[in-house]
Design a protein that fits this description.
By secondary structure, the protein is α/β, with parallel strands linked by helices. It has 18 helices and 21 strands. The strands form 3 sheets. The protein has a 10-stranded mixed sheet, with helices on both faces. Strand 10 and strand 11 form a beta hairpin.
């Protein structure tokens, strides 16, 4: 095994810089073999097809992630996710350092900015330690020493754990830093689980073995994010500094398995529409159709169950909103990410006191006075829907996500308690996209199940009339365009707005195909970065779609 390690240039290179990686690989190689080492950016969604996974990838700050199939005889059914971190400092050293740091930090050193906190902490740490070139017997450390001797080889490890535990989220920090994770879940006692963008659900090496340990961690976690938790207030929802969403439940009063938490991570760079097309979440024609709709101020809901990818799709298609529009987004948790320069981003505020709290309803009402070209609501859940429909009625297009698995469920939720939108108002909502997580060949994927045009309310049948213009064929895993030559929105709304006559109606479908071709070119040329795709779309406004296609065919668009 050691010979194999030396022969692998990548492992040898990383092992020279981080010897603990080699020690870890040596410890697991006999049982599961030598893993293949990657940089984080080298991972590919094509790896979803791998069965016997055994890879290590580097995510920075000395942290490696090992994903592998457990040896035969393991019955959990999960692949393993192990965070390989720098070696922990001697317990006595870390305890003494904590005490001295507590003495050194004053009220003048308080900061809300994580980077500034880190700089302050490292500055204090460097003042209280003395780096030496000999091994130190940390058991004999004196807590009142003017300077604490630390072996040079241990100092970087010490810095890592001081930052991890004092500013970061402790044992969860490697998971927070791993951009390939979608969510992190602790159901109670036992292992923490994660959902990987490539490898799906995984069991980690982090385990809570006692309720006291878990409860203490939960309390510290809640304090760290500025939302103290207690038996009186056992549920906390908050946003982490990196934008991730966290939900914490404390104690047995409301959770039979005891304290638990879930962290929903969000990418700093959103997933682009071309990436969704490449994953077959939707095809180029659906994307082109949505492009025309959003370019023409249509209102729509992105619907589906939990974890169906609604917000990802919302962020992706928001790039189709014209670049010069003023967009106001309203959320209770920061999830919407837009490339528009004139973007007003607003968040609710829950103080626990009605008079000082700001709700979605309050923000939506205020948004109507800000003259937006588009209003984006992170998620519509309750009475704020009535304001959203009022906004649509007054000519403000609205884009939002909504929990519902079908158009019928959308209508039922909107027209029933507690939302109570009159059925006659439903035609203000132009389209409903239904999305779901599906399993194909043992791999979870997201698919747009249908895109539906809302025609209006039929008083005789007391029903909402809608037409599915796109539907997913689960057998062929393709999308069928049922609206060709019969799209209500394209022909009766958008063509009418543009002054296109019935004789010229074919031109609107030609434009659909042209936009689809442009998006196909972007996919074929592997232009997947969100902002690269945005720049390409903006270019179509500057030089026209025809010219943009010709340039893209020659490879000189930007």
């Amino acid at each position: 095994m050691e010979a194999q390690t030396v022969l692998d240039p990548k492992i040898a290179k990383h092992g020279k810089e981080h010897p603990y990686l080699l020690r870890y690989i040596n410890s697991v190689a006999k049982e599961i073999g030598v893993p293949i080492l990657y940089e984080s950016y080298e991972l590919s969604y094509d790896m979803k097809k791998l069965r016997n996974v055994n890879i290590v990838y580097y995510i920075g700050d000395g942290i490696y992630i090992h994903i592998y199939m457990p040896p035969k005889g393991t019955v959990s059914g999960y692949r393993k996710y192990v965070a390989v971190e720098p070696p922990k400092p001697h317990p006595k050293l870390f305890r003494v350092i904590e005490l001295r740091l507590a003495e050194a930090i004053t009220e003048h050193d308080v900061s809300e900015d994580p980077n500034e906190k880190k700089a302050i902490l490292l500055k204090k740490l460097e003042k209280i330690v003395k780096i030496v070139d000999y091994q130190v017997d940390y058991e004999k450390l004196k807590e009142d020493a003017k300077s604490i001797p630390v072996y040079r080889g241990d100092f970087e490890y010490l810095k890592y754990y001081v930052i991890r535990d004092k500013i970061g989220l402790g044992i969860l920090e490697p998971f927070i830093k791993d951009q390939w994770l979608e969510d992190i879940t602790c159901r109670g006692l036992g292992y923490v689980y994660v959902f990987h963008k490539i490898f799906g659900p995984l069991e980690t090496n982090i385990e809570f073995r006692t309720e006291e340990e878990l409860d203490m961690f939960i309390i510290k976690l809640a304090e760290r994010i500025g939302k103290p938790i207690s038996h009186a207030k056992p549920i906390v929802d908050a946003t982490l500094p990196d934008g991730s969403r966290i939900n914490i439940v404390y104690g047995h009063d409301v959770s039979l398995h005891g304290s638990n938490f879930t962290i929903r991570k969000f990418s700093k760079v959103p997933i682009s529409i071309t990436q969704l097309i490449a994953w077959n979440t939707m095809d180029t024609r659906i994307a082109a159709y949505l492009w025309i709709l959003l370019n023409s101020n249509m209102s729509g809901f992105i619907c589906g169950e939990t974890a169906s990818g609604k917000t990802t799709t919302l962020n992706a298609i928001a790039a189709f909103i014209p670049p010069t529009y003023k967009v106001v987004s309203i959320e209770d948790t920061a999830e919407v990410q837009l490339p528009h320069l004139n973007w007003v981003r607003e968040l609710t505020r829950d103080t626990g006191v009605k008079e000082s709290s700001i709700t979605m309803f309050d923000l939506l009402r205020a948004a109507l006075r800000q003259r937006p070209n588009y209003i984006i609501v992170g998620e519509i859940r309750g009475v704020e829907a009535s304001i959203a429909f009022q906004a649509m009625q007054t000519g403000h297009p609205v884009l939002s996500t909504f929990h519902a698995a079908s158009v019928e469920r959308v209508v039922q939720r909107l027209t029933g308690d507690p939302i109570n939108i009159p059925k006659s108002f439903m035609d203000n909502l132009n389209f409903v996209l239904i999305q779901s997580a599906v399993w194909r060949g043992g791999i979870m994927a997201r698919r747009v199940l249908s895109v539906n045009e809302i025609i209006g309310y039929d008083p005789k049948a007391d029903a909402i009339v809608y037409v599915p213009v796109f539907v997913w064929d689960p057998v062929k895993d393709t999308f069928v365009f049922r609206g060709r030559g019969a799209s209500y929105l394209l022909e009766n709304k958008i063509a009418a707005m543009r002054g296109i006559s019935r004789v010229q109606m074919k031109s609107i479908y030609d434009e659909l195909e042209q936009r689809a071709y442009f998006l196909r070119l972007l996919v074929d040329k592997k232009i997947f970065n969100y902002f690269d795709v945005w720049n390409a779309i903006v270019k179509t406004y500057e030089i026209g779609l025809d010219t943009a296609i010709k340039r893209l065919e020659r490879g000189v668009l930007l």
